[in-house]
């Protein structure tokens, strides 16, 4: 099935120079891990490394990704723009190829990171609340840190990012109703599509993609890799403690609200009512894998075991699994399968491994019988390339680092 999905993405689409550049242009998505050529190149590069695909596919998709004007502006991050293309090159190409472009992109990403660190430090010094885009995985400093941990783990810049994340976990004396009673990642930004009056006083976002679970994953994976800064263990404990405090219990096990508003914090309970879709981006799978990574980083077997048990109960619940739609790594079957596979490789008990055949079989079955529009999206994070990549990874039992863009390993 991995081969079938990859073969369907063998050739990139033709582009018309007259279409120009911009968010509505097909060429704009070239530099995207989520929907575009940079992510699809990773699929073919990983397959080529195991002799299951040709390198010409990698070159074709990378050529499409690199032909456009590469973004290094405010919207650029790990999933889009210069960092996305740099990450793709680091995973997809053979050693020695693309060195000139890689060096140029590394310099751009380093400059972006320094600029954003400077802005974040100034924001914290003035006791202002952050926007999620400052620290999140998709386009913030966590995503840039994930790239740096892969490209330059012994450099100074990754440690500056980790130091920033440590500071992010500390309360700030902001001049708003929450004041210093909430952690430093508390934001006043209203989530897209949500009513403004429901988020008066701000909120804590708990997702992997845009919330505090992403920074926790980077702090934990860095510590496991031996990349540490002062206060890192305390910061990991602080985030874990927050998630422990706001964990809810349901018939199918623990769950966490996607977000917690100031009103809900004062009441001591979320109004969400039950678990969200079991996704990587906001559901229990992403959060439990991160808590497992935290347990591994801290050598806390109790925390690790609790996280594994929570994940197992989630992926064994037919009700939650019925909410999954499509193949995506972000919020579909590929994501819950990928999280479960990497978690099972580190698990203390074999129960998660025992669940893998069902999850993998379900993903394959979905690919066979669902011709819906969600199965025609080509991207890595939001399309069929991601489904192909996790199926390839499981079938070959190889992990090449592509999963760092999700911070699940």
From TrEMBL:
Highest rank taxon of the organism: Bacteria
Matches recorded under Pfam families: LANC_like (PF05147)
Region (Disordered): 1-30
Database matches in InterPro entries: LanC, LANC-like
The name this protein goes by in its record: Lanthionine synthetase C family protein
Organism: Streptosporangium jomthongense
């Amino acid at each position: 099935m991995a081969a079938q999905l990859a073969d369907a993405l063998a050739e990139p689409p033709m582009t018309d120079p007259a279409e120009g550049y911009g968010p509505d242009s097909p060429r704009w998505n070239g530099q995207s891990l989520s929907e575009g050529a940079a992510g699809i190149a990773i699929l073919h590069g990983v397959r080529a490394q195991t002799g299951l695909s040709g390198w010409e596919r990698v070159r074709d998709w990378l050529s499409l990704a690199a032909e456009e004007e590469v973004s290094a502006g405010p919207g650029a991050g790990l999933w889009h723009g210069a960092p996305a293309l740099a990450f793709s090159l680091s995973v997809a190409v053979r050693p020695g190829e693309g060195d000139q472009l890689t060096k140029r992109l590394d310099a751009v990403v380093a400059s972006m990171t320094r600029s954003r660190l400077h802005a974040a430090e100034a924001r914290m010094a003035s006791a202002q609340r952050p926007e999620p885009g400052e620290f999140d995985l998709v386009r913030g400093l966590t995503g840039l840190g994930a790239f740096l941990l892969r490209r330059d783990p012994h450099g100074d810049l990754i440690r500056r990012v980790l130091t920033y994340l440590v500071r992010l976990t500390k309360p700030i004396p902001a001049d708003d109703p929450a004041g210093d009673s909430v952690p430093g990642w508390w934001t006043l930004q209203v989530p897209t599509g949500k009513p403004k009056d429901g988020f008066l006083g701000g909120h804590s976002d708990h997702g992997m993609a845009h919330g505090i679970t992403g920074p926790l994953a980077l702090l934990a994976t860095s510590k496991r890799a031996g990349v540490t800064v002062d206060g890192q263990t305390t910061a990991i404990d602080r985030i874990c403690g927050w998630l422990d405090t706001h964990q809810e219990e349901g018939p199918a096990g623990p769950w966490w609200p996607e977000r917690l508003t100031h009103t809900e914090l004062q009441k001591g309970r979320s109004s969400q009512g039950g678990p969200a879709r079991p996704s990587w981006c906001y559901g229990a799978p992403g959060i439990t894998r991160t808590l497992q990574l935290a347990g591994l980083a801290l050598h806390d077997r109790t925390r690790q075991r609790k996280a594994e048990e929570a994940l197992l109960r989630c992926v064994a619940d037919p009700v939650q699994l019925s909410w999954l739609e499509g193949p995506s790594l972000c919020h579909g079957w590929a994501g819950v399968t990928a999280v479960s596979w990497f978690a099972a490789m580190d698990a203390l008990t074999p129960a998660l491994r025992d669940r893998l055949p069902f999850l993998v079989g379900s993903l394959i079955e979905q690919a066979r019988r669902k011709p819906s529009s969600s199965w025609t999206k080509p991207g890595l994070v939001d399309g069929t390339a991601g489904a192909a990549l996790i199926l390839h990874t499981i079938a070959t039992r190889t992990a090449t680092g592509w999963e760092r863009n999700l911070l699940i390993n």
